[in-house]
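This protein record is not my work; I was only asked to verify it. Would you go through it and say whether the fold makes sense for this chain? Here is the record exactly as it was handed to me.
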Amino acid sequence: MKVERYSYPILTPSAARGIFDAIYFKKEYNFYWQIDRIELLKSPKYIALRRNEVKDKVSVAEVQKWLNGTKAISPLWADGTSAELGTDQKGRTQRQTMALKNVRYRIYAHIVCRDANADLTALNAQFERRAAQGKCFYQPYFGCREFPAYFQLLTTPPTTPPFDLDLDLGWMLYDVFDLNTVNGNDAKPAISVFRAQLKSGVMAVPPYQSADVHKLEGSANVE
């Protein structure tokens, strides 16, 4: 059974890591961003979004066959009906998303080097320089590219307290990749989850290596 998308009341560690990656990350430097905690600065408010989406997608193998001339090109018909396409597994469908709006967070993170000989001081300096100048390799976003994120580096102790909210969030997605390895474009999913709790507007995030992070490598299912 398919379900509609529903956002967590607060940013996930995976989405937060993506923001830091957008500002400064290079695979050849062999490190990853460890999110330490996320502070909620505004009360979570939801908005219902309904979008048109296609039910199927073109695989790399299919495109390769088209290029080799071994199979005729078969485009995606976004507006095709089941009567026109001969199946209800293709064409357009409407999906609803309950997304957060007007969000604001304060995120704390640090670099974890997989190489013991890495120059952590230099890596931190490069990140701080880029973040202070507003530089990024691509526009950061909150989990999905449709929701752009804007950032500012904190250089002094914050004066705005977290929004006072206590919530037991249950099992939350920690990450979709294995942070112990360098993940390329063809990396397989490695789902990890943790028990998330929001206390006085602060969600503490355990280290990826912690026993509090439950990892199911290569599987998108959580028991």
Notes: Residues 120-132 form the longest helix (13 residues).
